[in-house]
Amino acid sequence: MADPEHLFKVNVVTPDGLIYSHRSSIIDMRAIDGQRAIMYDHTPILTPLAIGDVKVKRSREMSGRVDHIAVNGGYLEFSNNVATIIADSAERASNIDVSRAQAAKERAEKHMQEAREKHDQQSLKRAEIALRRAANRISVYNTRK
């Protein structure tokens, strides 16, 4: 049977397993080379993702609901109307523990300051990534309805 809404499957997988699986009309995410949107029948693609918010617009029967998922990098593969995101970690907005994310943000800021004082570029870079991940989780958490 034909799909009148032109929906495709979206799966998000982490080392802990499948954390998200729904049908979508469009997904929007940040790849390392810029913003991307994927729709039904998109050309097959494999692209690395940046730390960011993956927005999944659901079907009309779901009132056009948009699910937000915080991903910490990874890859998006799209072919045969299936989008698969493979990430080291990913959390739906509704599952984010914002107090834990805030604590991670504060720790990262502290580590950045210590690394600057010691002129430790490697530690500074790790702390900056940790800060971006924590800030992303907080931002995605704030998008939930």
Report on this model:
Strands 1, 2, 3, 4, 5, 6, 7 and 8 form an eight-stranded mixed beta sheet that branches. This protein has two domains: 8-93, ATP Synthase, domain 1; 98-141. The longest helix is centred in the last third of the chain and has 21 residues, at 98-118. The protein starts with 7 loop residues before the first strand and ends with a helix. A hairpin with a 2-residue loop joins strand 1 (8-14) and strand 2 (17-24). The chain has helices at residues 98-118, 121-141; strands at residues 8-14, 17-24, 26-31, 34-39, 45-57, 66-79, 82-86, 90-92. The protein is of the alpha+beta class and 145 residues long.
What is the gist of this entry?
By secondary structure, this protein is an alpha+beta fold.
Number of domains: 2
The CATH architecture of the largest domain comes to Sandwich
Question: For the record, what CATH class of the largest domain applies?
Answer: Mainly Beta
Biggest sheet architecture: 8 strands, mixed
CATH topology of the largest domain: ATP Synthase, domain 1
Q: Which stretches are poorly predicted, pLDDT < 50 over at least 5 residues?
A: none
Query: What distance separates the N and C termini?
Result: 33 Å
